[in-house]
Design brief:
The chain is of the alpha/beta class and 626 residues long. The chain contains 22 helices and 13 strands. Helix content is 48%, strand content 10%. The strands form 3 sheets. It has a 6-stranded mixed β-sheet with strand order 5-7-8-9-6-10, with helices on both faces. Strands 3-2-1-4 form a 4-stranded mixed β-sheet, with helices on one face. Strands 12-11-13 form a 3-stranded antiparallel β-sheet. Strand 1 and strand 2 form a beta hairpin. The radius of gyration is 40 Å and the shape is elongated. It starts with 9 loop residues before the first helix and ends with a helix. The N terminus is likely disordered. The structure holds adenosine-5'-diphosphate, magnesium ion and zinc ion (ZN). Adenosine-5'-diphosphate binds next to helix 7, helix 12 and helix 14.
Length: 626
């Protein structure tokens, strides 16, 4: 295992100790060069000394190997004899000369080494060594007595759930789909034999994806609590450390420990810290070896424990799934992905109930109102909200939380959140509602194998303010020109609704327009669907259309053709836009009804949605497709 210093990180870590050591070294050096106070005697040239001896002016001299100190006979000032020093040169005649001139002289005994500096030179280096050792021992956590140099040990904390502190699914609310998926995992952990007997492979990795504070950590604790198994928790960033190789060693150690305690759960928080796509970070100079080694080790370990009787299930959490290395998502690794999203209205209501039980509420408090006012809040924000309200009540010496406290707490939490994530203002919410319903109505009336399954105006994930979910009714591999035109119209439905209702447009449609334009370009350039331009592929082959990669480079074409392509693309989008506008004007009443309903409920899906959308009708002129 190569151990070398990673040059980015140690500066901060080493800070204090480095400073101490350097300071100490400088002190030693300086003390060497500082003139010894006992030696502070005026220095004179050797020739002057000889002259003074010859003049019989010297009373006595002390000669050492590096200096001659002598006292003059003439007493110049206040009775103290003048003492001078000079540096000896190789002069065999000196004793003779001194004797001739009656100088008392003596050689000093060989200088005794300074006891202090001797001690220093013997004691300091080992001391430095010990300090460094202790530094590492401390860094590597609760190593205790045996902990010196244990920095390759994993720093995972283990929780063995006991009856009181046990977290169960009852403590988590508003994320029902995730709970349903994870219930299965609990079953794997409880009765692995049942699955082994039939020859089924128990999944090894489950990836929880969702914005911060939605309860990913809580959910995985609940899985451990429900199954009654030990729970190892470690953050991805804790693997990435000072030394290259330490992260990999820690992963190895963690899995070693976990296997001993199987069945159990390993929870890796912030998986993205080690699992970033390797290809994506090629441009970065240095510093990636460590993460890559750690990631490789993790993959190896996950592949390794398949033959186990008792399962070790790795749960991991991330809020940046798009940055993860594809290798992590392959079967046998994190092949299950569970979306843990911000709760909707009823979810928020249930979460509020959980936390309201922990504080004293006055009778009149209406949690429904609070749930309605907190669209976009994650579970952690709601927990925080109830606590803030309790703090407010306690500050003014009330014994129970009132509605007003909760309302004030909302404002506080929102103020904090507005910096971090998006909370929609009421007027924005209205725009988002009409926008999404616009998508839904146009999408419902367009041909093609998909139906609108859900409309939501709860801000989701990192980018969307709301969304309309279209599910394919059948698996399709081919799309007709008609289907694609329908898709463009559906994408433009959101913006068109804003135009019809508000007479102006917002920035919310940027992504829709991007996708609509992409489809139109492909229709002309890749699928040869333009009548004027004919069945030619103007785009070069390659590029991942479905991977969201950049669109294909264009073949070399004449200026005239390039202009014609642009015109065709523009025409396709324009016609789809007209179509969407026509549909929405024709169904203006329905647009209003559904939008009002979604402003109340935030999410409409299933049978309710089906009934509503069934009322939509195609305007005659929209049937005529150019
Ligand atoms: P994440 O790991 O997704 O960032 P956490 O699980 O750490 O979020 O959530 C932090 C805290 O917020 C939890 O300890 C819990 O008190 C509260 N919380 C978050 N989501 C929920 C939820 N769905 N139900 C109940 N409490 C929640
Ligand atoms: Mg967490
Ligand atoms: Zn949209």
């Amino acid at each position: 295992m190569p151990i070398r210093q990673d040059d980015n990180r140690p500066t901060r870590r080493f800070g204090l100790i480095n400073l101490l050591l350097i300071g100490f070294g400088v002190l030693l050096l300086v003390s060497n060069f500082l003139p010894n106070p006992a030696n502070q005697v005026p220095r004179v040239p050797y020739s002057l000394f000889i002259d003074q001896v010859n003049d019989d002016n010297v009373q006595r001299a002390y000669i050492t190997s590096d200096q001659i100190r002598y006292e003059l006979k003439e007493v110049q000032t206040e009775g103290a004899p003048t003492v001078l020093a000079t540096t000896p040169i190789f002069d065999m005649d000196l004793p003779q000369r001194l004797e001739q001139h009656g100088v008392e002289f003596a050689a000093a005994p060989p200088q005794k080494p300074n006891i202090f500096s001797t001690i220093l030179s013997w004691v300091v280096p080992p001391l430095i060594f010990i300090v460094v050792l202790q530094f590492f021992a401390r860094r590597s956590g609760m190593g205790g007595a045996q902990g010196a140099l244990s920095f390759t040990k994993s720093k995972a904390k283990v929780y063995v759930p006991d009856e009181e502190s046990r977290v169960t699914f009852n403590d988590v609310a508003g994320v029902d789909e995730a709970k349903a998926e994870l219930t299965e995992i609990v079953d794997f952990l409880k009765k692995p034999e049942r699955y082994a007997a039939i020859g089924a492979r128990i999944p090894k990795g489950v990836l929880l994806i969702g914005p911060p504070g939605t309860g990913k950590t809580l959910l995985s604790k609940a899985v451990a609590g429900e199954a009654g198994v030990p729970f190892f928790i470690i953050s991805g960033s804790e693997f990435v450390e000072l030394f290259v190789g330490a992260g990999a060693a820690r992963v190895r150690d963690l899995f070693e420990e976990a296997k001993k305690k199987a069945p159990c759960i390993i929870f890796i928080d912030e998986l993205d810290a080690i699992g970033k796509s390797r290809s994506g970070s090629m441009g970065v100079v240095g510093g990636n070896d460590e993460r890559e080694q750690t990631l490789n080790q993790l993959l190896t370990e996950m592949d390794g424990f398949s033959g186990q009787e008792k399962p070790v299930i790795v749960l991991a959490a991330t809020n940046q799934p798009e940055t993860l290395d594809a290798a992590l998502l392959r079967p046998g690794r994190f092949d299950r992905q569970v979306l843990v999203d911000r709760p909707d209205l009823s979810g928020r209501r249930t979460i509020l109930e959980i936390y309201a039980k922990k504080v004293k509420l006055t009778d009149g408090v209406d949690l429904d109102l609070i749930a309605q006012a907190t669209a976009g809040f994650a579970g952690a924000d709601l927990a925080n909200l109830v606590n803030e309200a309790a703090l407010l009540a306690a500050r003014v010496n009330r014994t129970a939380v009132e509605q007003g406290d909760l309302n004030e707490a909302i404002e506080r939490v929102v103020a904090g959140l507005e910096k971090k994530s998006r909370v929609l203002q009421p007027d924005e919410k209205k725009v988002v509602a009409y926008h999404e319903v616009g998508h839904a109505i146009v999408g419902h009336l367009m041909p093609g194998g998909s139906k609108v399954a859900k409309i939501s105006i709860v801000p989701r994930g990192m980018s969307a303010l709301g969304y309309t979910l279209q599910l394919p009714t059948e698996e399709r591999f081919l799309n007709s020109k008609d289907d694609l035109q329908g898709q463009i119209a559906t994408l433009l439905g959101g913006r068109s609704a804003e135009e019809v209702v508000f007479g102006e447009v917002t920035t919310g449609a940027a992504n829709d327009l991007q996708r609509a334009t992409d489809i139109a370009e492909q229709m002309v350039g890749t699928f040869g669907m333009s009548e004027t331009l004919g069945p030619l592929a103007y785009d070069k082959q390659g590029g991942g259309r479905f991977l969201g990669g950049p669109s294909n480079p264009r073949r070399v074409v004449s200026d005239a053709t390039a202009q014609a392509i642009d015109r065709e693309v523009r025409g396709l989008v324009d016609r789809a836009h007209e179509r969407a506008l026509a549909i929405l004007r024709h169904n203006r009443g329905l647009l209003e009804t559904i939008s009002q309903e979604i402003l109340d409920k935030e999410v409409i899906e299933g049978e309710d949605l089906k009934v509503l959308l069934a009322q939509s009708v195609l305007p005659e002129e929209a049937v005529v497709v150019s």
